Amino acid sequence: MNLLFIEGVLRWLSANNSWIQIISLVCGVTYMLLQVFQNKYMWYFSIMVSTAAFLIAISNHEGSAWAPLWAQVALNIYLIIIAIVGIFKWRKLEGESGGKLHIVPLSRKRLVIVLAILVAGAPLLSLVLKNFTSDPAPWIDGTSLVLSLVAAWLLSQSHIEQYLFWIVANILIITVYATQAKWFMAIMYLVYIVFCIIGFINWKKNGVIVES
Predict the structure, then answer these.
(1) How many domains does the chain have?
(2) Hey, which residues does 61 pair with through a beta bridge?
(3) 140-180, pLDDT tens digit by residue?
(4) pTM: predicted TM-score of the whole model, two decimal places
(5) Collapsing DSSP states into helix, strand and coil, what is residue 120?
């Protein structure tokens, strides 16, 4: 009975996929707009858009077969957790910057760690997705996931470099959703790229350096 119920829920989500994509698009655009100006309420919209994206990824079908986008499932669970971390971290940074747009410098040591995670993690995760899941785009999905994991953490710590990682990750994610004909999601991530460029410029111009 429980399995039948879960299958019914997944099929309902799949049948209503377009509506969930629209909700995700609206919340996502709002989230990115707030991020450009470093508004703390962006984290709450991040939770909403990640929840919607999780539902889309977990209910994905190819033909009549259930084919979840497992990397996107894992990514959006992680993004919800990171959003909660960001809420508390930014509350602290907001106090240190006097309520102004805050930027924490990315140390050389932290940058080396981030690059090492990318070099080792992207191919490893892609192989796991290829060999142990039904993910239809394991290499692109795996690489975009690792990039997004790193970018989300950099954002929670208020490092401006997060925008550069997001741009590359979003280009790959657009490719994944386009191959699955999920056009609202592809459009959302295209809009994300535009906001990333605007956000980087705004943070660079108006940000206050805060040592954390």
Answers:
(1) 1
(2) 66
(3) 888 988 998 999 999 999 999 999 999 999 999 898 888 87
(4) 0.80
(5) helix
